[in-house]
Design a protein that fits this description.
By secondary structure, this protein is an all-alpha fold. It has 18 helices and no strands. The longest helix has 41 residues, at 339-379. The termini are far apart.
Length: 459
């Protein structure tokens, strides 16, 4: 929770940091402090210090994505930008897939601090390589001051919003006074932030950027797509580990083919973009995601690991078609002087939508599972002859009394959770299909020449 809070707050300040200190300087310091706080997270001896260092680690990580993307546009010529964004998209897709596998190995077979220590050699390598290769792309430093009012409203609003999203299910949403308080604080703070950004001379968030049509379309598509995407990659491992007996490592392996699909498709997407534009691959990607989620909606409690991996592979194929053009749209649409600020807003929307999607779909998962559990119990009871026969069959395995009831409860939970996965996957499929129509608003209109037409009369 606090990693996401720190990350979201600094994302919107990355434009100011880049203009104040330069792109490369900001990136180097972000990598440096991310590495340091990763080490301190591993050193933590209690939950309080871990939460503090995770918050600082998230804040340090905030500028890395938008400034990296801005530097890629500055370094490379426009005609290769789609290929560059394809590589960037592959990293963005591959890392969340590889991470759970490595993290699962360390947590299951070794010790948990190594999920943080593994960042040390990577961070040190990145710091020195960036320092050697990017020193000529820092840009000019300005004396622009930080919008402290906007930053304070952002800090309060995002902290309250993230607590509301992450703890809503645990605290039973609006039945909890704490949830009501966090929702009210978030709503008031973020509303005042938007009002402040409309009247401030140098606001933290340049709302005028949303006048650029393709930037607005890309932001909306990213919001709904990433919420659905995060639901896909969170709910399935949650189901596997909670009800099907998978450990963290096996669950990570089960979803890993998502990255394989990205590896196979991503290199070809720039060619499709060059020939057909960005809308066509976006629509193809959402249609493949729709099909993959429909496929998942037919899963059952005894589903094999092979089918789970196959569904994640199909999902990875679709996501690869989406990420490359979607990440390139704001880069191309934004002017160079607003690139860091606009990309900070874009990735902030991406991060918040992931948190919202996670909160919505995990809440649906838990509550619909309880709902189906009660439906099963209404039918499966001792007064039903079939139920009594099933109980006698269980007792034939020398399970009696509380042991047989515990086993029966686990079996009912498995079936209830499988029905929930079917429902959630169907909802995700509908969301992905609907996004096919939203991306059509990103079609670039042909500019008609304003020059007068001269008619030549031949006698």
């Amino acid at each position: 929770t606090f990693f996401t809070i720190g990350n979201s707050i600094i994302l919107l300040a990355s434009g100011y940091l880049a203009s104040r200190f330069g792109n490369v300087t900001t990136l180097l310091w972000a990598v440096f402090w991310f590495t340091v706080f990763s080490m301190l997270c591993g050193f933590s001896k209690n939950l309080f210090t871990l939460v503090v260092f995770r918050f600082l680690q998230g804040a340090a990580a905030g500028p890395i994505l938008p400034i990296s993307q801005a530097l890629l546009k500055r370094i490379h010529p426009p005609h290769v930008l789609d290929k560059v964004m394809a590589t960037f998209a592959f990293v963005t897709l591959g890392a969340p897939v590889l991470g759970p596998i490595v993290g699962g190995y360390f947590c299951v077979d070794y010790t948990w601090p190594w999920i943080f220590y593994i960042n040390l050699p990577v961070g040190i390598f990145c710091f020195f390589v960036d320092r050697l290769t990017l020193k000529n792309y820092n840009g000019k430093n300005s004396e622009e001051r930080l919008d402290f009012v906007g930053f304070l409203l952002l800090f309060v609003g995002i902290t309250a919003l993230q607590l509301f999203l992450d703890k809503g299910q645990t605290w039973d949403w609006f039945r909890s006074p704490l949830i009501k308080i966090t929702f009210t604080v978030a709503a008031v703070s973020l509303t005042y932030l938007l009002m402040w950004c409309l009247v401030a001379k140098r606001p933290l968030i340049k709302l005028s950027l949303f006048r650029i049509r393709n930037f607005t379309v890309a932001s909306l598509v990213m919001f709904f797509f990433y919420a659905t995407y995060f639901g896909c990659i969170v709910v399935i491992p949650l189901w596997l580990q909670t009800y099907l007996g998978y450990d963290a490592l096996r669950a990570g392996i089960a979803v890993a083919p998502l990255g394989v699909g990205a590896l196979l498709v991503t290199p070809f997407v720039p060619k499709i973009v060059a020939n057909f534009g960005r809308i066509v691959p976006l629509c193809i990607g959402f249609l493949i995601m729709t099909a993959a989620n429909f496929y998942t909606s037919y899963f059952y409690a005894e589903v094999s690991m092979h089918n789970i991996m196959l569904s994640r592979f199909y999902l990875g194929l679709g996501i690869s078609f989406i990420f490359v053009p979607l990440l390139a749209m704001p880069v191309i649409a934004l002017p160079n002087n607003d690139l860091s600020n606009g990309l900070g807003v874009f990735h902030f929307i991406r991060g918040i939508s992931g948190a919202i999607g996670t909160s919505i779909f995990t809440t649906l998962f838990y509550r619909r599972t309880v709902h189906h559990h009660h439906d099963f119990i209404d039918v499966f009871n001792y007064y039903n002859p079939q139920s009594r026969a099933y109980m006698h069959e269980i007792e034939s395995y020398h399970l009696r009394g509380q042991s047989s009831l515990t086993l029966l409860n686990d079996l009912v939970d498995q079936q209830a959770s499988a029905l929930t996965i079917e429902e959630i996957s169907f909802v995700m499929a509908i969301c992905c299909f609907t996004l096919c129509f939203l991306v059509l608003f990103g079609i670039e209109r042909k500019k008609h020449s304003s020059q007068p037409i001269h008619h030549v009369v031949v006698e």
